Structures are given as structure tokens and as C-alpha cells.
TrEMBL record:
Protein name, entry field: ABC-type Mn2 /Zn2 transport system, ATPase component
Domain ABC transporter as annotated: residue spans: 2-251
Gene3D superfamilies: P-loop containing nucleotide triphosphate hydrolases
Family recorded in the similarity comment: Belongs to the ABC transporter superfamily.
Taxonomic lineage from the root: Archaea, Nitrososphaerota, Candidatus Cenarchaeales, Candidatus Cenarchaeaceae, Candidatus Cenarchaeum
Keywords: ATP-binding, Nucleotide-binding, Transport
InterPro entries, per the entry: AAA+_ATPase (IPR003593), ABC_transporter-like_ATP-bd (IPR003439), ABC_transporter-like_CS (IPR017871), Metal_Ion_Import_ABC (IPR050153), P-loop_NTPase (IPR027417)
Top-rank taxon, per record: Archaea
Length: 261
């Protein structure tokens, strides 16, 4: 599904992402845990071709030359979502902007060549209106389809962006610190949505600095502080005192130095 090989990103003479290698299998629910400043966002941007890097990324069985055709089959929800609160668009308008069969056509052919299973939950429903309605239903916002986007809470907006990603039936969904700044009720609603999407067959990678959330919702765990120092099953991670200790130590150091991201 995804393989990162010796992925390295340099910022100002230092490696923000340092020689990371890992793979993600189809159907995985992988939690990337690390303190703020550990390089999680930078790593995601490198995987998506948005950040210059060294090393290689293989996506859906294909190498870097095919990346631009395959990235449209990845749903990406960034940590920070900025928009004009006065923009006169409804929830349905925003989600429908994600519908694009033209952008995904070449990638779909490459996926079939790789022999990957691709469940077309939304693509088989017809036009943009039907796909949009189904995606909003999945994230629990069907009743808000006609509401202005500027009237939503932070948690609702996050789920709208997830719905916008779903309308093209992504094989992989990347969620960067998706519950940052939202209340406990919105967090619970988000994790319910995330688990249901994964159970329907979509591979998910999501980042967090919350060990409790990782323990409750991840199936596999990768732990990083610039470099990757653990990648494996959740149960294995929470029994690994060395890995847990290193995470807590790196979190303390990042907090003391005031790093972001």
C-alpha cells in the first residue's frame, strides 16, 4: 500500500525527518505517535510529494515516477484548515468540490495493475450530488448539508474535510492531528467516524501526540521524534518500556524547547 524508504527531509541544516523507513499494508489503521515538533506533518507532506526529500516513496505498488497520478487516490486532512468564514458556500458545496473522476483515472488504472482491491463505495453511486450525500452521511453530517460552512464548529469542519476526501473513494486516508483544538464530544464523534471508515476497507494513517487515543483506536503504531524508533503492533508498543520511555523523554524535550508541528 505504502512504503517509505530512507525518507529524509532537511530544514536549515538539520534533518526534520531522519532516514525513516516503514510500510503500511492494505486495511491498516496506523497511529503515528510523537510529540509536537517530531516531524509528523513534514513526513506526511513528503509522502504526498508536497515536500522536497531524499529517499523514496512507493505508493500502491508503484515508485516515485507514478506518484503524481496516485496521490489523487489519497485523502489528506491537514492539521490546520484555513478558510474564509464569510464565504457563502454550504457544507454540500465544499464536499462536492472533492469529486473528480478525471484526476483519478490514471491512478485507478495503475492500482488495478498492482492488483490492489479497491472498493468503490461512492464512485458507483452516480453523480456528484449522490456521492456528496453519501459521504456526509458516513461522517454523520447529512443533516447539515445545507448549512453555511462558516457556521460549523471545529469538529464539524474537520468531518466535512474528511467527507470531501471520501467522495473519490481513497485507498489511503492520511489524517494529521485531526482532533487538535476540538472538544471531547467532537473527538469521540471523529474517532467513531474514523473507525467506521477503516472497517469499510479504507487504509488509514493518523498522527497524534495522545497515547490514550493511540491505545484506544490504533491497530499498529509508529513512534517518531524525527527518526522512527518503533513500528509494530499496538500491544507490542505498550509493553515496550524502552519505546514508551523514549517517547516520554522526547515529548519532554520538545515541550521544553517549544517546538511546533
Amino acid at each position: 500500500m505504502l512504503a517509505a524508504e530512507h525518507l529524509t527531509v532537511d530544514y536549515g541544516g538539520r534533518a526534520a525527518v531522519d532516514d525513516i523507513s516503514f510500510d503500511v499494508l492494505q486495511g491498516d489503521l496506523l497511529g503515528i505517535v510523537g510529540p509536537n515538533g517530531a516531524g509528523k506533518t513534514t513526513m506526511f507532506r513528503a509522502i504526498l510529494g508536497l515536500q522536497p526529500h531524499r529517499g523514496a516513496v512507493r505508493l500502491f505498488g508503484h515508485g516515485p515516477r507514478s506518484l503524481r497520478h496516485l496521490v489523487p487516490l489519497v485523502g489528506y486532512v491537514p492539521q490546520k484548515i484555513s478558510f474564509d468564514h464569510g464565504f457563502p458556500a454550504t457544507v454540500s458545496d465544499v464536499v462536492s468540490l472533492g469529486v473528480s473522476t478525471r484526476r483519478t483515472a490514471k491512478g485507478a488504472r495503475l492500482v488495478r495493475e498492482a492488483g490492489l482491491e479497491w472498493g468503490r463505495t461512492y464512485g458507483g453511486l452516480g453523480g456528484a450530488r449522490e456521492r456528496t450525500a453519501a459521504a456526509l452521511s458516513t461522517v454523520g453530517l447529512g443533516a447539515l448539508a445545507g448549512r453555511r460552512i462558516g457556521e460549523l464548529s471545529g469538529g464539524e469542519l474537520q468531518r466535512v474535510i474528511i467527507a470531501k476526501s471520501l467522495v473519490n473513494d481513497p485507498l489511503l486516508l492520511i489524517l494529521d492531528e485531526p482532533v487538535t483544538g476540538v472538544d471531547a464530544e467532537s473527538q469521540a464523534a471523529f474517532y467513531d467516524v474514523m473507525n467506521r471508515i477503516n472497517e469499510s476497507g479504507t487504509t488509514i494513517i493518523w498522527s497524534s501526540h495522545d497515547l490514550t487515543a493511540i491505545e484506544r483506536h490504533a491497530e499498529k503504531v509508529a513512534c517518531m521524534d524525527g527518526s522512527l524508533f518503533f513500528h509494530g503492533g499496538k500491544e507490542q508498543f505498550f509493553k515496550d518500556e524502552e519505546a514508551l520511555g523514549k517517547y516520554r523523554e522526547s515529548a519532554m524535550q520538545m515541550h521544553m524547547h517549544g517546538h511546533d508541528g
